[in-house]
Amino acid sequence: RCVTALAIAPTGTISLVADVTSGIEPLIKKAYKRTDRVGERMYVHPIYLDHLQTGDPLPSWYVDSDDLDPSDHFEVQVAIQKFVDGAVSKTINMPAGTTADQLSHLMLEYIHDLKGVTVYVDGSREGQILNSVSEEEVRNYLERNKIVTGAEAVQCTTGMCDLM
């Protein structure tokens, strides 16, 4: 007899291959620098790239993880957890400077509705893999490097390019 029927497994790195968001996560960042064993790369989401190139305003629905309050992250996980009998893989992204007291209050509010929680406070560890980049940093990068998207790219699909 089955113990569980549904779980939401981790999909962080494999989502990069499919060029999709991971699991129930929002877009991690509109633009970011990824530093790992492969090297250092700049990722720029196509909608954000278009905004930078045209100056058109970003749609109101276009948000990333940093635009959401930590309680929004918890609320989404709680909503999904109601329909999943196993754990839900989701990272509650917290802004740099989040205190243990702030985190404790959030955990006490939501933990009774969850089977597991993963929390990451931006900048909390040395050698962080994903790092935010400012709009100015992205613009400077774009001035020095051509970002191509889709079929014209071999090493740089959908705005994801190696840093020089």
Automatic annotation (TrEMBL):
<keyword id="KW-0560">Oxidoreductase</keyword>
<dbReference type="InterPro" id="IPR050862">
    <property type="entry name" value="RdRp_reductase_class-2"/>
</dbReference>
<dbReference type="InterPro" id="IPR000788">
    <property type="entry name" value="RNR_lg_C"/>
</dbReference>
<protein>
    <recommendedName>
        <fullName>Ribonucleotide reductase large subunit C-terminal domain-containing protein</fullName>
    </recommendedName>
</protein>
<dbReference type="GO" id="GO:0004748">
    <property type="term" value="F:ribonucleoside-diphosphate reductase activity, thioredoxin disulfide as acceptor"/>
</dbReference>
<keyword id="KW-0170">Cobalt</keyword>
<dbReference type="Pfam" id="PF02867">
    <property type="entry name" value="Ribonuc_red_lgC"/>
</dbReference>
<keyword id="KW-0846">Cobalamin</keyword>
<feature type="domain" description="Ribonucleotide reductase large subunit C-terminal">
    <location>
        <begin position="5"/>
        <end position="120"/>
    </location>
</feature>
<dbReference type="GO" id="GO:0031419">
    <property type="term" value="F:cobalamin binding"/>
</dbReference>
